[in-house]
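Notebook, student rotation project (T.W.).
Task set for the rotation: take a protein with a known small-molecule partner, predict the structure of the complex, and write up what can be learned from the model alone. Partner molecule chosen: NAP. Sequence and SMILES entered below by T.W., checked by me.
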Amino acid sequence: MHPETRHLRTVLITGASSGIGKALALAYAAPGLCLILIGRNAERLADTAQQAMRQGADVVVGAIDVRDRAAMSAWIAEHDKAHPIDLVIANAGITTGLAPGDLTEDPEAVRAILATNLIGVLNTIEPLIAPMTARGHGQIACVGSIAGLHGLHYAPAYCMTKSAVHAYMESIRGRLEKRGVLVSLIIPGFVKTPLNDSIDTFKPFELSDAKAAALIRRGLTRGKAVVAFPLPLYLLARFGRLLPSRFYDKIMTGVSAHVPQTQERI
Ligand SMILES: NC(=O)c1ccc[n+]([C@@H]2O[C@H](COP(=O)([O-])OP(=O)(O)OC[C@H]3O[C@@H](n4cnc5c(N)ncnc54)[C@H](OP(=O)(O)O)[C@@H]3O)[C@@H](O)[C@H]2O)c1
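Predicted structure of the complex:
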């Protein structure tokens, strides 16, 4: 067993059928660990599960849509009873945005991304708050984005969902940590995944999914409130907030980008 995973017995990860979620599952998979993996695509989820089992983990998969509050709540409660969850990572997410020349996003696409990236996060975290605080133990983590630190002209709704989850995680941290439950916000920059590949823009300091997963696991193991990477891009985004807003807009609207509209619908 990896020394950092010694104290973990059960980890729940959403969006484990692809990209960062899959890489996280494989970063944690080890003998003695139970992984509870959620995604919609049963075939890709089974592939993650098989690889994790080959690394010695016990794996439970749930082909569940994170937008389905009732299904998420029932399934998570059932599995938390059988295997009390030590760490939950609300990672599942989608992206949507604008092509050069577009002015507004399709309202249906905007509602769809809110349902996944925001309501889906709530549906993942809420069922675990009461059991974890009752045990006085656990860690709640959520994948935000550097795009949540400042709006980007090519992805308004995506930025909105990510800044909202940042605010949510910051807001629940103080009270839950007094009850023994750690709260960690993950803020990645560009990570090479199918989601990221769909975006056509300049991607400074892009990382592999495996490297991102290793950084996330290290940060979560250290109990960090914020796990942000790569550092130069994170600092640049934080610095951007200090600039006068219209000066910032002038620089950023010069960045060419095309983010396809999501085909997801509520
Ligand atoms: N890649 C980046 O550069 C980057 C940067 C910052 C933040 N992030 C965030 O990192 C997270 C993971 O993204 P990724 O890049 O790894 O994307 P990805 O490769 O497209 O994976 C997204 C995962 O989310 C799952 N998912 C999407 N909608 C779902 C739903 N309604 N119910 C259940 N699962 C759902 C997908 O599962 P199915 O396909 O099985 O539905 C898939 O496993 C997202 O929250 C994203 O915003 C990514």
